[in-house]
Amino acid sequence: MSAPEEEQDEHAPLWPPLLLTLGVLVLAIEARHQKLALTALATFVLLPTVWRVLKRRWVRGDVIRGLGMGFIASHVPLLLGACTTLNRPECRIHVCMDGVLAGAPYVPWAGVLGTLLYWAWTRSPGAGHHSP
């Protein structure tokens, strides 16, 4: 096999499981079965993510960059919580902490999701160059 074909196979999507999961998701939504729909949606997102994390070619610095992306992503729930208080006039000048604290339970999950998404869906900076 040539190098471009090998690279293409490494990043090829998992069509059969993704289409099966999408079918289950559509049927669950039509049947109004909320737990099955949420499970199918989570599987639809996590299946290619876990596959790419396990199959990717790791290079130096990937772990640090992924953890940095997780740190950045962990602040998103706090920012969204603060933005939800902007419609109240007293919170426009001073940040109301109730909105920020409402997003606090989601901080670890957003960090893990940001790290996984970075590792799964981005190419390494040196992916085009093969180092000895």
Could you please describe the fold and organization of this structure?
It comes from Archangium minus. Keywords: Membrane, Transmembrane, Transmembrane helix. This protein has 132 residues and is an all-alpha fold. The protein has helices at 3-10, 15-30, 34-55, 62-73, 76-83, 90-93, 97-103, 107-121. It is flat, with a radius of gyration of 20 Å. The chain starts with a helix and ends in an 11-residue tail after the last helix.
Radius of gyration from the CA trace? 20 Å
Specify the structural class: mainly alpha
Instruction: Give the mean pLDDT.
Output: 78
Order of helices and strands: HHHHHHHH
The major pleated sheet works out as:
none
- Count of separate DSSP helical elements: 8
End-to-end separation in angstroms reads 20 Å
Overall shape: it is flat
Q: Which percent range describes the beta-strand content?
A: under 5%
Strand segment tally: 0
Please bin the fraction of helical residues. Answer: 55-70%
Low-confidence stretches: none
